[in-house]
Amino acid sequence: MHILFIGYGKTSQRAAKLLFEQGHQITTISQSLKTDVYANHLIQDVQRLDLSDIAPVDIAYVLLSPNVSTIEAYQQTYVDSVKPIVQALKDHPIQRLIVVSSTRVYGENAGEYVDDDTVPNPSDVQGNLLLGMEQLYQQYLDQACVIVRPTGIYSGSSARMQKLAAHTTSYPTIQWSNRIHIDDLARFLVHLLHVEHPEKSYICTNNQPQSLHERILKIQRSLNLAELVLESERETGKRIYATRMKAIGFRLIHDEL
């Protein structure tokens, strides 16, 4: 199959390599030069996307992210790009469009449990824009569209957390965090090609919510640093579980805390 990546960052690169190894033809769209030898790279602005000169596309992935987290950047990157992308794909035999969104569409912030059956209810403008993007793609492409909502993406580096542990003496609340390793996210995006009747959306997380103060404490103890003091038992954040991902038999390779 001919597979197109619209947006070609670290997650796309990993997924594209896996798909190439499975024998697929890969084309990518980005705004900067890419050099991976297993793909045909095109430099284009998604707002003026032109796919008229490439081979028919069977599968498309959309993985866009703004350079900053402002409302204007979210509007332009996520919402304003939908129409030109759909327009550019209309003459291609698209079997499936996989769009990466975010669990920011869930507005819970008091330690609640969230899973794939939780109805999205964003608590901020950026979350509403992400949900609006999802709804537009599903409106245009209906059964062909699958939404993926990852939690916080990490790649194994502990430098940031070690720095935080060295400088944190107290923590205000029990703040729940949720993570997915970038390699597992890439593998899940590939896995979705082999699901015959996918759901309209999937959360992607390691199913191990953890409070941030406990993560920091664990590092402090391992490095013999002074231990932080938890100031309040009040819970913030949410505990997220990928029930549909588990139901289709996908297994993580990075599931450690």
TrEMBL record:
SUPFAM superfamilies: NAD(P)-binding Rossmann-fold domains
InterPro entries: NAD(P)-bd_dom_sf, NAD(P)-dependent_oxidoreduct
Gene3D superfamilies in alphabetical order: NAD(P)-binding Rossmann-like Domain
Protein name, entry field: SDR family NAD(P)-dependent oxidoreductase
